[in-house]
Here is the input.
Amino acid sequence: MQQSRARLFKEYKEVQREKVADPDIQLVCDDSNIFKWTALIKGPSETPYEGGVFQLAFAVPEPYPLQPPQVRFLTKIFHPNVHFKTGEICLDILKNAWSPAWTLQSVCRAIIALMAHPEADSPLNCDSGNLLRSGDVRGFNSMARMYTRLAAMPKKG
Amino acid sequence: MISDSITNASPTSAPTARDSPKKKRSNKSAKLKQNKLGLRREQWLSQVAVTNKEKSAKKPVELERREEDNSNGGDVVDVRQESYMESPSNSSMGGGSSSTNFSGCSSSSSCSGNITEEDNAVDDGEGEECVDDWEALADALEAEENESVKVEEESVREQPSRKQAWRPDDDLRPQGLPNLGKQLSFPELDKRYSAVSVPSSCPICYEDLDLTDSSFLPCPCGFRLCLFCHKTICDGDGRCPGCRKAYEQDVNRAESSVQGGGFTIRLARSSSMFCRF
Here is the structure.
């Protein structure tokens, strides 16, 4: 308990210091609870998510950093490894490949990398995975682009 | 300088000088050869000095030129004597090099060969005859070749110790020389620690690493962390955060895998440091 709190506090200071260093990630801590974090990440360029801003919710367990934080998308996203309704993310480093050396910031970077390189063989979103596995990249791109416009971009007008 | 060396060398070595050729043929053991070489050098030195004296007495007209020669020769003699006095074991090597300098002879034969050359030449009495009697010299060289080869082997065997520069504890070592051993040892240490970059804080708990932590390297991948976090991880899945491979020196794993009593007890004792946390 004390250990995870101290570590999260240090990570918070680190994030404040490195805010300018990574303009694609905005990591903020809940005012009242240091175990609740939210992050805003920009969709990577040259992907259907480009131009969108996606919100992530972090729930940090007490044994952190020995156990990984639970992360889910709050913003709707059409991606084979993200559950379309719950926003759950299928990412190995958030499960068995977690290492205590990772930080919330590095988890955000990993999620941005996952957005750029979807893994269609272990899908949480079967529709999205099936499009990619059948080779319909154009269909996948247009669907993902549509949901990015709908959910992750500021409404026009 | 010259007169010093002459007076010092001549009275002591003159009597032994006569015996040495016989000794050379009769003695076969290595140690005696070494002694004999030294003796012969002394003899040679004294004889050169004597002939120089004689020459200068015989030809007072050429005194000035002779003196020049003597001073050259005397220098070499002096050097040789010094080297002989300082380290008796070094005598054959040092003598060899300086004798070639002195005679101006470019023969590549062994050092003892050079010495005998000089010996014979001096025995003949005059320096000029040395050149005239060249063939006789060569014969003498050949006759002693077998022996000189042996001496050569000897000197080769002893070379490693001789070729070394001064040892740190050597008395003859100049005081001005820097102590390289000491100087090298510290930068090497520094290098070793800086090569694997030591983080200032533990990457797991972000606490500063103390001296014990920074010298603690639990995984061959080089990932460093504090002892506290290492203990916590070992209590859990026991995998290195850097490479995600199981820690090999994990106490529980080692104890469960090794059934032998002694080894297990030793492990437990050595790891008691971790258990205190």
Notes: The longest helix of chain A spans residues 2-17. Chain A touches chain B through 13 residues (CB under 8 Å). The mean pLDDT of chain A is 91.
